[in-house]
Amino acid sequence: MQAKLKRKLLDFATEPYRSTGNFNYRWARGKLKHDPIFAALIKRSLLTDGARILDLGCGRGLLAAWLLGAERLAAQGHWRGSAAPPKGLLFRGIELMEREAVCGNRALQPLHGERVQLSGGDMREADLNDTDVIAILDVLHYIPYAEQNRMLDKIRAALGTGGLFVTRVGNAGGGLRFALSQLVDSCMSFAQGHRLPRMWCRPLGEWVAELEARGFEVQAIPMSAGTPFANFMLVARVA
Ligand SMILES: C[S@@+](CC[C@H](N)C(=O)[O-])C[C@H]1O[C@@H](n2cnc3c(N)ncnc32)[C@H](O)[C@@H]1O
Fold first, then answer.
1. Which domains, and CATH codes, for the chain?
2. How far is CA 201 from CA 11, 141, 179, in A?
């Protein structure tokens, strides 16, 4: 994505958070500016028009903010030269910290209405039905291994043919870069008022094997560009 387009999209995606306070606005700007996964989802054309997206561990709804911001930008004729963003997406989000879901709704609903519905709750108890795409970005490692496996079982059962599961995980086999990402993860959680979290991480190969064992076709894509981390985006499709 060209730098000029990215700057404009950053403005479009984060402006709605201004009304929820300076911390939330700055948080949204920092995360969307520096995290490569949001741009990659558009660049790789992973999402189809009209997809119903369930974002588990959605935080303040930044994924919805970015993709719906991109759609608005394109609708106003500002999108040029790179893969066009998907249109008509619908977002449901579940977030353990209810106040973050409330913040996301306050920011995004005035602009996008019912297309964004974020709720407080635990993803392990979420209803996964009526969904085309399930996203879990940087969240799975907060639940124990057996519960991760149960979550993957539920996701596979909920997605029909052509369904897509997108997740990002740290590669526990990633040496120093992985250790650094864990340190930053802990600091970020602490900065947001969460307790220091316990984490259950796995090497990349193990994540891929767990998904393939459930019948997903998996692509593992390095997703740390511009950061010193050892993160991968896993694009898992039901064939
Ligand atoms: C590192 S943040 C990522 C937020 C968001 N996915 C993003 O990429 O901007 C992890 C989020 O997962 C949430 N979380 C952790 N465990 C969860 C669970 N069991 N159910 C729902 N959300 C959870 C945390 O509260 C936190 O907001």
1. 3-238 (3.40.50.150)
2. 34, 5, 11
Ligand 1 midpoint to CA 3 (Å):
29
What is the model's pTM? 0.95
Cα 2 to averaged position of ligand 1 atoms, centre (Å): 29
**Residue nearest atom 8 of ligand 1, based on CA coordinates:** 137
From atom 14 of ligand 1, which residue's Cα is the shortest distance away? 57
Q: What is the pLDDT of residues 35-56, one digit of tens each?
A: 999 999 999 999 999 999 999 9
Q: Ligand 1 centre and the CA of 213: distance in Å?
A: 25
Confidence of residue 226 (pLDDT cuts 50, 70, 90): confident
CA dihedral angle for residue 106, residue 125, residue 136, residue 159, rounded to 10 degrees: -110
